Amino acid sequence: MSVKILAIESSCDETSASVLADGVILSNYIANQTVHEQYGGVVPELASRAHQENIVPVVDLALHKAGVRKNELSAIAFTQSPGLIGSLLVGSCFAKSMALALNIPLIAVHHMQAHVLANFIGEHKPSFPFLCLTVSGGHTQIVRCDGPLDMKVIGETLDDAAGEAFDKSAKLLGLPYPGGPLIDKYAAEGDPNRFKFPEPQIPGLNFSFSGLKTSILYFLQEQREKDPQFTENNMADICASVQHRIVSILMNKLVKASKETGIREIGIAGGVSANSGLRKALQEYGKKHGWNTYIPKFEYCTDNAAMIAITAWYKYQAGEFAGLDAVPGARAGF
Fold this sequence. Notes:
Elements: E1 4-9, E2 15-21, E3 24-31, H1 44-66, E4 75-81, H2 85-102, E5 106-110, H3 111-117, E6 130-135, E7 140-147, E8 150-156, H4 162-172, H5 180-187, H6 210-226, H7 230-233, H8 235-261, E9 265-269, H9 276-289, E10 292-294, H10 305-318
Parallel strand pairs: 1-4, 4-5, 6-9, 9-10
Antiparallel strand pairs: 1-2, 2-3, 6-7, 7-8
Helix pairs in contact: 1-2, 3-10, 4-5, 4-6, 4-8, 5-8, 8-9
């Protein structure tokens, strides 16, 4: 009998639903929230209200696109943690109610674990052991994977995440939210070696981006004192230089992790893995160091329910189900 799973992702400001059948994604829909743009960041209360409005039509669309009826579902999966607690509550309550009504199992999924397993959607899948650089607005981690459900964080940020460094740098440049994709856009036209920003000297496999953000702030203040139009006249080169430094910090740690573990199966995941500079760097470093590299499709990089579905598929096979007392958490490790 075919195993069909409905997955729901609601950790931040995207409401997403996906349907999977026997490990294959049949549909993946995402409803974005534009209401946050005017505030320069995600407003938690507005996010949870939008999830309440979006979740029923998004789930209906996902089921219709997949050609699957509710009574054909084998399980319901949802993002349990981490994320905005109000947003997580909307998804978890909906999933629990639907699983209870249909009398089928419930599967709780860790958001960051799901980002890693986005690399296992489709035909080109990593072999184990596998290293994944997971980078987003809230997290920066190097994860060692010895199996689809056997993961360990071996390096992480000590302060700010790489995605936050992109967005905060964009804000300093006067770019609208979300600024990370705009830095990527301008960087394509700029000289990455025009301006030099320091690389934090953090021991081990951990990261730090707070010092880099401060150096960018002081650099811009100093240059604007000399030329008030400095930012506008040099936007492409500044963005290219900022992106180059963030990417080099990430890749240098990934090289170190590969050497220390001896693992050459290397991938990236998370929202920042959609950045063209990082994707290009992974491929270049892969050729240089003899890695087999993996990059999820763009639609599986940002928050999406397909990655929840593929994780749920592995958990279903392992018999890892959740009870109706499963509680969402704003912060939680693997």
